[in-house]
Please model this.
Amino acid sequence: MAVSGGSSRPAVRLTELSTAHTWAETEQRHVMWPSASEKHPILVDTPDSAHGIDAIVLPLDENFETRLDAARRFWRALNGRPPGVLYGALPQQTKLRHILNLRAHDARRAKAAYRRIAEELLSRDPIAARDWRDHHLRHKVRAILRRADRLVAGGYRDLLLYPQSRNRKPDCRYFGKG
Model:
């Protein structure tokens, strides 16, 4: 697809990126530009540094959204704007849930009883042995440990591609099916 040159901003010359580190390989120029907030790796199709960057080409693959966010952050840095929220950053509640899952998993590996795990991680008060059989935290601990087992068995790999991983079907090898 051809793009017309009707842009209000002229091409970015590599010489304008004064703090950039550049090197040439074959027919491409690699640029590592550290802006105020982060480092931006750039791959330019022509090794001639006189040419500017006037377009960003993104492959329409499974990582398109991540690449699009990187391009957005680069554009914002060029214009002196803050980078904004990183695409794919785990929400705070999800981080806390994964921490809880792994703490429960570690406690079980240390041979802690389920009631003890519930008391330490989920309750402020001790749970009497007579109440444990019907206690609501008993079921919650079991559910937490099931999620922890899935994470430890390979589900943690989905965190590397979050949030795209939510759109994919789970790999049966990691979830005990197939």
Remarks:
- Residues 12-78 form one domain.
- The first strand starts at residue 12 and ends at 13.
- Residues 136-155 form the longest helix (20 residues).
